[in-house]
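Trying the structure run again after the queue cleared.
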Amino acid sequence: MSNRRLDPKSGILYNVEIDPPKSELVSNNLIKRQEDSEPLVRKRYQTFQQNLSLLEENFKTSLKAIPSDKTVESVKMEIFSTVQNDIQ
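Done. C-alpha cells:
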C-alpha cells in the first residue's frame, strides 16, 4: 500500500511497483497520499492482524479461501466465480 499513488486528475490509484500507469504524463503527475505513508500503512496492517481472527470467527460461514499464488487474472476469475455461484 505504501507504493500506491493517486492521479489527482482522474482519481485512479496506481501501484507504482506492480501496476504503474502506462503514460509517462500520468506517472509524472502522481501524488502520494498521506494515509499511504509507510508508518500509517504499518499501523493499519497491525490493526487488521489484531482483528483478523475475530472477523474470521464472525464470518466463517461466508468465507472462501482463494489461493493468491496465481496470476491476478486467475484470482479475479475465481472470486467472480465464487460470488456468482453464491448468488445463484
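The chain has three helices and two strands. Worth checking whether this holds up in the mutant runs.
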